[in-house]
């Protein structure tokens, strides 16, 4: 075996025996993998490579993008009028729905004992186009055309008009990879809106299913329950819609119930997504704890003291998880559901 | 078309990379073979002293960058493919295309296995049977891909 390798290698192989060369390259790969996995040293190389890859990705995507723009520029007058009419109705409906929003926010603030309504947790939005290329065959990831030049950071929340899409994972200068909530690597802290029960939603790899594998068999969950983000985990602000429970399977002998849910976000058909910047001082801001230090976005930002509440659990802001996210719904902008 | 062999290799790898990145409908994307690996394997067999393991390693690294996997994962796997191609090039290239396909199937299966193992070790396990499909389609496509690549460069006439 090795004999064959050496014999065929020496006359042809450039620079010696292929087996030896392969060993060198294999060792280099393993070293690279360990460095990438265990340390943060390759961060700059990743950033650079993401930037270098972007022109190629845009070039591959450009024929499709060009075709789309040609198609849309030939849209007929009637189609455009219909779309216009549809959008106008939609805007009117949304306006009517938000008419009472400020009043409700005030009311809600009064209910939880605040003098004034808190500002909504979302501070800034930025639309991003999806660069339509195949990143990985079986993983659920997309590429968007915004990067650090637009202020995008790692682990930033990404949404569309219907719900949570995912979070940024690798950010380059002009582009970022988004880990969708359906990716097998994605773990999303959620809360069942009806009961307030917190759990974790993991991706299944199937583009329209997420799973809740950590619910005990006797957990109070029903088909049709809405899952919202719980605000834990440090990425997503609390209270954004995620998915609707679509299937529950409880085996007599299994300790866990098998719960599947369908994401609200249109992960398959989206052309555009939204990047979200949130207020760090809002009680609904995502909270992450690492070694006693709060780490959300900017390291200097500290949460406001917990709002004084008539209930006996008015704990001071110690940076502890329990004190920051009260069991009842935190006053995230549009909190319209009654207290359980 | 007789350009320099290095140019032919570069061009074929670039085209393979573009074919890997082009978005396809879901079912086509799943059966899409690993074109870059096929190109590397072809050049390892036909021109073992030009491309070599270094070419495979670089191509793998490029795949790592695009696919967002752990840096070095595809590099190791494609380098292994190139190594096997170079080591067995005399045995493989004398065989008829259909028999070559069998060898290609074995190499591609090994490639997918290495990826699967590293995925698991690095904490991104993906245990669906679909991940083995490209090895099969790659081997099936070999009798088409190999003559195409052969046309891109013929050494000395």
Summed up, what is this model?
The complex is a heterodimer of chains A (340) and B (157). Chain A has 340 residues and is of the alpha+beta class. Chain A is built from six helices and 14 strands.
Task: Kindly describe this structure.
The complex is a heterodimer of chains A (340) and B (157). Chain A is an alpha+beta fold and 340 residues long. Chain A has a domain at 2-38. Chain A contains six helices and 14 strands. Chain B has 157 residues and is mostly helical. Chain B is 74% helix and 0% strand. Chain B contains eight helices and no strands. Chain B has helices spanning 5-21, 26-31, 35-46, 52-67, 73-87, 89-93, 97-121, 133-152. In chain B, α5 runs antiparallel to α7. The longest helix of chain B has 25 residues, at 97-121. The termini of chain B are close together. The model of chain B has no long low-confidence stretch (mean pLDDT 88). The chains are: A alpha+beta (340), B mainly alpha (157). At the A-B interface, α1, α2 and α3 of A face α1, α2, α4 and α5 of B.
Shape of chain A: globular
Indicate the radius of gyration of chain A in whole angstroms. 25 Å
Low-confidence stretches of chain A: 1-15, 290-302, 311-340
> Whole-Å distance between the termini of chain B?
9 Å
Mean pLDDT of chain A: 79
Question: How would you summarize the topology of this molecule?
Answer:
The complex is a heterodimer of chains A (340) and B (157).
Chain A: H1 2-12, H2 18-38, H3 43-73, H4 77-99, H5 101-111, E1 122-131, E2 141-144, E3 157-159, E4 164-171, E5 176-180, E6 187-192, E7 198-203, E8 210-212, E9 226-229, E10 241-249, E11 258-263, E12 272-278, E13 289-290, E14 293-294, H6 321-324
Antiparallel strand pairs in A: 1-2, 1-12, 2-5, 3-4, 3-12, 4-5, 6-7, 6-9, 7-8, 8-11, 9-10, 10-11, 13-14
Chain B: H1 5-21, H2 26-31, H3 35-46, H4 52-67, H5 73-87, H6 89-93, H7 97-121, H8 133-152
Helix pairs in contact in B: 1-3, 3-4, 3-5, 3-8, 4-5, 5-7, 7-8
């Amino acid at each position: 075996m090795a004999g064959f390798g050496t014999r065929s290698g020496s006359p042809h192989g450039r620079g010696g025996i292929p087996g030896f060369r392969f060993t060198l390259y294999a060792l280099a790969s393993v070293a690279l993998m360990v460095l990438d996995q265990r340390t943060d040293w390759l961060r700059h190389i990743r950033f650079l490579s993401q930037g270098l890859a972007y022109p190629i990705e845009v070039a591959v995507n450009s024929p499709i993008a060009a075709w789309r723009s040609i198609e849309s520029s030939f849209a007929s007058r009637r189609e455009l009028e219909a779309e216009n009419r549809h959008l106008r109705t939609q805007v009117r409906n949304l306006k009517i729905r938000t008419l009472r929003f400020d009043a409700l926010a005030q009311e809600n603030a009064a209910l939880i004992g605040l003098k004034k309504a808190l500002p909504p947790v979302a501070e800034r939005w930025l639309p991003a186009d999806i660069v339509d290329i195949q990143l990985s065959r079986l993983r659920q990831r997309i590429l968007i055309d915004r990067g650090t030049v637009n202020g995008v950071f790692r682990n930033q929340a990404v949404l569309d008009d219907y719900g949570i899409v995912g979070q940024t994972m690798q950010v380059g200068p002009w582009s970022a990879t988004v880990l969708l909530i359906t990716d097998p690597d994605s773990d999303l802290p959620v809360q069942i809106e009806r009961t307030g029960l917190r759990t974790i939603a993991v991706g299944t790899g199937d583009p329209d299913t997420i799973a809740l594998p950590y619910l005990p068999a006797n957990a109070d969950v029903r088909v049709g329950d809405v899952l919202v983000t719980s605000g834990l985990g440090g990425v997503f602000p609390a209270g954004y819609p995620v998915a609707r429970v679509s299937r529950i399977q409880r085996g007599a002998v299994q300790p866990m119930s098998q719960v599947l849910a369908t994401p609200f976000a249109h992960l398959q058909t989206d052309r555009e997504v939204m990047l979200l910047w949130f207020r760090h001082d809002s009680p609904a801001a995502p909270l992450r704890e690492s070694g006693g230090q709060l780490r959300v976005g900017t390291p200097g930002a500290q949460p406001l003291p917990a709002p004084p509440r008539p209930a006996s659990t008015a704990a001071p802001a110690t940076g502890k998880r329990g004190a920051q996210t009260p069991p009842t719904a935190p006053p995230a902008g549009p909190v319209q559901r009654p207290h359980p | 078309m007789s350009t320099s062999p290095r140019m032919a290799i570069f061009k074929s790898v670039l085209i393979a990379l573009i074919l890997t990145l082009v978005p396809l409908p879901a079912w086509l994307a799943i059966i899409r073979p690993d074109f870059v690996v096929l190109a590397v394997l072809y050049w390892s067999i036909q021109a073992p002293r030009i491309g070599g393991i270094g070419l495979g390693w670089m191509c793998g690294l490029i795949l790592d960058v695009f696919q967002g996997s752990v840096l070095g994962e595809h590099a190791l796997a494609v380098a292994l493919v190139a190594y096997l191609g170079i080591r067995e090039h005399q045995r493989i290239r004398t065989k008829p295309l259909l028999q070559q396909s069998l060898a290609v199937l074995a190499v591609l299966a090994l490639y997918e296995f290495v990826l699967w193992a590293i995925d698991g070790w690095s904490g991104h396990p993906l245990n669906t049977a679909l991940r083995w499909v490209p090895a099969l389609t790659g081997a099936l496509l070999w009798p088409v891909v190999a003559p195409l690549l052969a046309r891109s460069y013929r050494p000395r006439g």
